[in-house]
Write a structure and sequence with these properties.
Order of helices and strands: HHHHH
Radius of gyration: 29 Å
Largest sheet: none
Distance between the termini: 84 Å
Shape: flat
Helix content: 55-70%
Strand content: under 5%
Length: 122
């Protein structure tokens, strides 16, 4: 047990911090595990968020966080490759290309620059 006053205070602070860090660590670990099991995009996004928060709080090294996120995205991408893509029928608004008006083109093309009068005094 610490004897000095500052050492006692430091011990209290360390206990509080270790409890907070443990909670953050457990959260990101459980979410990453769940994302690996379900491989759904929602679970992966929650795991990404938890990993980012842990890295921000220095519970997790930023390179390890990047490594975890990379492996999760690879796993989720590989499972989504086997799923058939949903078909979407295009509407008339999506098919029709947009036309630029002639007024905007003419204002850009007439780029004659006006000469500024020199204001130098001799």
């Amino acid at each position: 047990m610490p004897i000095l006053k500052h050492a006692k205070k430091k011990l209290k602070q360390d206990k509080k911090r270790s409890i907070k860090n443990k909670k953050i660590k457990d959260t990101y670990k459980s979410l990453v595990k769940k994302a690996r099991e379900t491989k759904s995009s929602e679970a992966v996004s929650k795991a990404f968020s938890a990993v980012d928060k842990a890295a921000k709080k220095n519970v997790l090294n930023k390179n390890k966080a990047a490594h975890l996120k990379s492996s999760l995205s690879k796993q989720s991408a590989s499972t989504e490759a086997f799923k058939p893509a949903p078909t979407k029928k295009a509407t008339k608004a999506e098919k029709a290309p947009t036309k630029k008006s002639a007024a905007t083109k003419s204002s850009k093309s007439t780029g004659a620059k006006k000469a500024k009068p020199s204001s130098k005094k001799k």
